[in-house]
Write a structure and sequence with these properties.
single chain; alpha+beta; 60s Ribosomal Protein L30, Chain: A; five-stranded mixed beta sheet; two-stranded antiparallel ribbon; 7 strands; about 30% helix; globular; binds magnesium ion
Length: about 160
C-alpha cells in the first residue's frame, strides 16, 4: 500500500539595504536589498525544507541546520535541500509534487518562475510540471507590503518509494 504524507512549510526574512541580489529557489535575482539571514536567506527553499521535514513528522529546519552553526553561515540553501532530500530518501519516501507561494512586493518574480522551477526540480527529483511556484504581492499591507520582509509558503506531498 502506498503511504502518503503531506507537509506544510513557511518562512519569512527581513529585507534590508544595501544589496546586489537575492537568491530565490536557488536563482540569483538582482536587487538593491538583501535578506537578513545566517544562510543565503532563500525563503522559498527554507519553506520547502520545512514542508519536507513536516511531512516526515520531524522538526523544523532550525533543528537540523542550526543558525548558530558556523557551517551554515552564508550557506547556499540548495546544499541544505540536498541534505534534506537525503533524509527523505533514507526514510523510504520520494516527492510526488510541491506547491509554493512567494509573497513579496519587490522585485517582480514572474520573469524568474520558470528558472526557479528548473532549479528546484532536479533537487527534488521530480519533473518541472510537478513544481509549482506562484508569486504575489501583499497589496502594500503590513511589513511584507511595505517591502521590509518577504514570505514563502510550501506544501509538499510525499509517497513511500515504489
Ligand atoms: Mg529562513
Amino acid at each position: 500500500m502506498v503511504d502518503l504524507r503531506i507537509g506544510l512549510g513557511y518562512d519569512i526574512h527581513r529585507l534590508e539595504e544595501p544589496g546586489e541580489k537575492i537568491v530565490l529557489g536557488g536563482v540569483e535575482i538582482p536587487y538593491h536589498k538583501h535578506w537578513v539571514a545566517h544562510s543565503d536567506g532563500d525563503i522559498l527553499i527554507h519553506a520547502v525544507i520545512d514542508a519536507l521535514f513536516g511531512a516526515l513528522g520531524e522538526r523544523d529546519i532550525g533543528s537540523h541546520f542550526p543558525d548558530k552553526d558556523p557551517r551554515y553561515k552564508g550557506a547556499d540553501s540548495r546544499r541544505l535541500l540536498v541534505e534534506t532530500m537525503k533524509c527523505v530518501g533514507q526514510r523510504g519516501f520520494e516527492v510526488v509534487n510541491i506547491d509554493t507561494t512567494v509573497i513579496m512586493e519587490e522585485p517582480k518574480i514572474g520573469p524568474y518562475v520558470d528558472e526557479i522551477k528548473s532549479s528546484l526540480s532536479p533537487l527534488l527529483g521530480i519533473p518541472q510540471e510537478r513544481v509549482s511556484v506562484k508569486a504575489k504581492t501583499n497589496e502594500k499591507i503590513g511589513e511584507v507590503g511595505e517591502n521590509r520582509a518577504s514570505q514563502a509558503y510550501a506544501v509538499v506531498l510525499l509517497r513511500s518509494k515504489l
